[in-house]
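STRUCTURE:
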């Protein structure tokens, strides 16, 4: 037993004192090393794009005065009155940078009001006219939303919220017409689109 321990200790000391580390064939073979590195690095497409989210566009014709609107803002501090102005500023900045495309990833409107969607649609057509394609998908605020309201003094009135068919129609030129595959789950819409250099699910 003592002899076995002695041999083991000698081996440990020898290994600890050895300055030679094991080598692998690819380290000394430049061709093999290059081949391994090339396979290990996937070829991703180069893309320059912009992303917007939670724009919460609100059609101010639905009301911005009165106690009901003030009470709403007290409970939900979105900049609804300025939402279109903020959007236009953002899109102007995006246009100046000339991305290949823009993604808007949901919550486009306050609560899915048809007129709010149409305001955004018009601005996206303006961007498209400058050669920049936009792709949109709905968020939980945008489709079949019972909170879509207009404000009248101290009272509110329910207004039409976009259904999934309305959403796909309004934004037909912003993803849905370009779809190479579509699917619908509950009230949401998903599609796979191709920008010519990459495919993505939206």
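SEQUENCE:
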């Amino acid at each position: 037993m003592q002899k076995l321990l002695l041999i083991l200790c000698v081996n440990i000391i020898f290994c600890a004192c050895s300055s030679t580390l094991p080598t692998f064939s690819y380290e000394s073979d430049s061709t093999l090393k290059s081949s391994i590195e090339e396979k290990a690095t996937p070829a991703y497409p180069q893309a320059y794009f912009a992303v917007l989210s939670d724009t919460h566009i609100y059609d101010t014709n639905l009301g911005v005065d009165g106690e009901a609107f003030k009470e709403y803002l007290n409970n939900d501090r979105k900049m609804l009155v300025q939402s279109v102005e903020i959007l236009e500023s953002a899109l102007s900045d995006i246009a100046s940078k000339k991305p290949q495309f823009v993604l808007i990833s949901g919550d486009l409107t306050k609560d899915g009001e048809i007129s709010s969607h149409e305001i955004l649609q018009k601005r996206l057509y303006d961007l498209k006219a400058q050669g920049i394609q936009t792709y949109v998908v709905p968020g939980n605020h945008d489709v079949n939303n019972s909170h879509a309201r207009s404000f009248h003094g101290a009272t509110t009135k329910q207004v039409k919220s976009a259904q999934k068919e309305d959403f796909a129609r309004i934004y037909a030129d912003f993803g849905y017409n370009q779809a190479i595959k579509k699917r619908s789950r509950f009230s949401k819409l998903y599609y796979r689109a191709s920008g010519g250099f990459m495919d993505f699910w939206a």
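REMARK: The chain has one domain: 48-197.
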